């Protein structure tokens, strides 16, 4: 019988690693529920585990391979600032290591497209040659042509990015995506264009933008407006929007208002670099409203969903959870 004052660290470790038997899991949960300090200690250990996974030897090697792949694709104008919380130390260490191992490519690199990719669980920001500031969300790629300059301002985006464009009416700035192009002269706006999302969109914070779709539709936006498209039909929906909610990710927050459950799952997967699995059709019909901060771990987010929605969860593998429909 487990003493209530003892911390079953090996049992907790097996549970977090997905190696816990049903009997051990029941024993662990009895210990957690026995005292408030037991539950607090358990949640603390979960948070430390969740935050520290990226600094393991195995994942450090994976991050090193990622930077090696990126180094042969680009000559960085500005080294991206990575913002994934606990992963920052590991990433900065790897960046420092590569700085002594890898040199920028010469010769043909002048004609290459510069490609900036942000993996899941991270964010990045950079400043382009014309002074435009760009913030990239998780699982996003920005490509910049080799001849990009203050007079030739064209970039390609896959994923989500927030742009603060330096004003120049004589030389418009263009963001190209698979389904639409955004043309501006000087403004602040957000583009969300993930290939796997049902809807893609652009939100305007300041200035004015002109958007042209692959179907030759033209939409002009004023501050506080958002245009979204169903990727299958490319039917446009222009609305007034809460700009602070749409741009919350820039400041490390997610603010959801009646978001469909499948879209919520995709966003959480990108933000936390996890896999969320579900099979229940009832979950697909749910819409969710809520607010999360970047400091919260995936465990805390799932616990919040469990308390406020008919959603339960269990850990099934490393960085993998199953979401379960549980009527409230």
TrEMBL record:
GO terms for molecular function: sigma factor antagonist activity. The keyword Transmembrane helix applies. The keyword Transmembrane helix applies. Signal peptide: none annotated. Gene3D superfamilies: 2.60.120.1440, 3.55.50.30. Residues 253-316 form the Protein FecR C-terminal domain. The chain crosses the membrane at residues 82-102. Keywords: Membrane, Transmembrane, Transmembrane helix. Residues 117-210 form the FecR protein domain. It comes from the Bacteria. It holds the Pfam family FecR_C. This is Anti-FecI sigma factor FecR. It comes from Sunxiuqinia dokdonensis. The lineage of its organism: Bacteria, Pseudomonadati, Bacteroidota, Bacteroidia, Marinilabiliales.
């Amino acid at each position: 019988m487990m003493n209530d004052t003892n911390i079953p660290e090996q049992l907790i470790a097996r549970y977090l690693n997905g190696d816990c038997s049903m009997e051990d899991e029941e024993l662990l949960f009895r210990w957690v529920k026995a005292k408030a300090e037991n539950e607090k200690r358990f949640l603390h250990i979960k948070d430390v585990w969740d935050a520290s996974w990226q600094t393991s030897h195995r994942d450090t090697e994976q991050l090193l391979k990622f930077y090696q792949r990126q180094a042969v694709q680009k000559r960085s104008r500005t080294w991206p600032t990575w913002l994934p919380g606990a992963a920052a130390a590991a990433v900065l260490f790897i960046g420092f290591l590569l700085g002594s191992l890898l040199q920028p490519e010469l010769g043909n690199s002048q004609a290459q497209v510069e490609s900036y990719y942000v993996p899941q669980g991270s964010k990045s920001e950079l400043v382009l040659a014309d002074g435009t500031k760009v913030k990239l969300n998780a699982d996003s790629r920005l490509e910049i042509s080799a001849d990009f300059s203050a007079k030739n301002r064209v970039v390609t985006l896959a994923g989500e990015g927030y742009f603060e464009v330096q004003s120049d009416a004589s030389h418009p700035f263009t963001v190209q995506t698979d389904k639409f192009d955004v043309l501006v002269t000087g403004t602040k706006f957000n583009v969300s264009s993930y290939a796997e999302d049902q809807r893609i969109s652009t939100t305007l914070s300041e200035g004015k933008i002109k958007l042209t779709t692959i179907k030759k539709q033209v939409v002009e936006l004023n501050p506080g407006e958002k245009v979204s498209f169903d990727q299958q039909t490319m039917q446009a929906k222009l609305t007034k929007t809460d700009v602070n909610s749409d741009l919350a990710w820039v400041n490390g927050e997610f603010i959801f208002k009646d978001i469909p459950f499948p879209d919520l799952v995709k966003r959480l997967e990108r933000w936390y670099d996890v896999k969320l699995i579900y099979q229940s059709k009832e979950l697909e019909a749910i819409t969710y409203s809520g607010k999360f901060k970047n400091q919260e771990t995936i465990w805390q987010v799932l616990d919040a969903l469990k308390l406020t929605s008919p959603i339960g969860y269990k850990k099934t593998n490393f960085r993998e959870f199953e979401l379960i429909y549980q009527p409230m």
